[in-house]
Amino acid sequence: MTDDILQQAASWRADGRKVAIATVVSTWGSSPRPVGSQMAVDDSGSMIGSVSGGCIEGAVVDEARKAMADGEPRLMSFGVSNELAWEVGLACGGKVQVYVEAVE
Amino acid sequence: MKTDLLGRLLAAKASGTPVALVTDLTSGLQTLVFEDAIHGSFGLEEEQLAEVRERLRQDRSGLIGDLEDEDSPRLFVHAHNPPLRLLIVGAVHIAQPLAPIAVLTGYAVTVIDPRGSFATAERFPGVALVDAWPDEALADLKIDSRTAIVTLTHDPKLDDPALMTALRSPAFYVGSLGSKRTHAKRVERLTQEGLTGDELARLHAPVGLDIGAVTPAEIAISVMAQITAVRRKGRTA
Predict the structure, then answer these.
(1) Each residue of B34-75: pLDDT tens digit?
(2) Which residues cross the membrane (chain B) (predicted)?
């Protein structure tokens, strides 16, 4: 699965699109996707892969766009203590850290 | 991530070479760590390098470094290993649902059956098929510790040579279809062929977790569940 995601990222890049990759780097408690899970996003909003059960992908895409714009990688944390997590609904009660980086 | 580093990572994966991508989460710098080389924008201390390679061998991605200490570099190790493989001996009815279930679970699947009318692309669309004898086929496929092997033919002519090879290989799982009575006879034959008690103890038979499976698809699910349990929880499953 990871192969498809990285290959898609490389192929978008080869087409001249801006691309960012998000990776789950740590989890606590019951989180829906294991460490190493990835998604790739391009500048038109196309995406492949996942870093949760669908609850935080929207927020990750927003950060991915910022990373594409300024080239700075970001570390995002989601969890029960995080207001954003409630907003975007990480209902499983777990915590997850996602690293977002542009491909350049 | 640099585009050329992504290219190198994908090339390593395409050639089946184990590689870890190490990211310094503070600076964003990245380095590829191979079994015998490193390539990238920062070096690693010997201790860290050993930890990265150990994680690569165990296929365990995660953070390393002192996570409590704010000043300590936080490194993320992403292990990229060749895919897990499931080698199915016997292009029989149960193999037909087992192959796609294994693919969905993340395994590269090969079906081995020297009987040409069984192993056809029509019955196994998109699956690698080998029509050699099972022992020769398994020798060619270079069994490693990320390989699971299941024999499904019920036919000692095909299953036995496969098991002789499989049970002496580094495969993490070997299972064989057949009732308890079939299995008892098989143990007798394989003992006569020279397999030791320890080698035979590795064999999961009757194959699959006991979930009361009846149909081919249900049996395939029980087999895939057992392979998963052995991979995730160790050999007690």
Answers:
(1) 988 999 888 888 999 999 998 998 889 999 976 666 666 689
(2) none
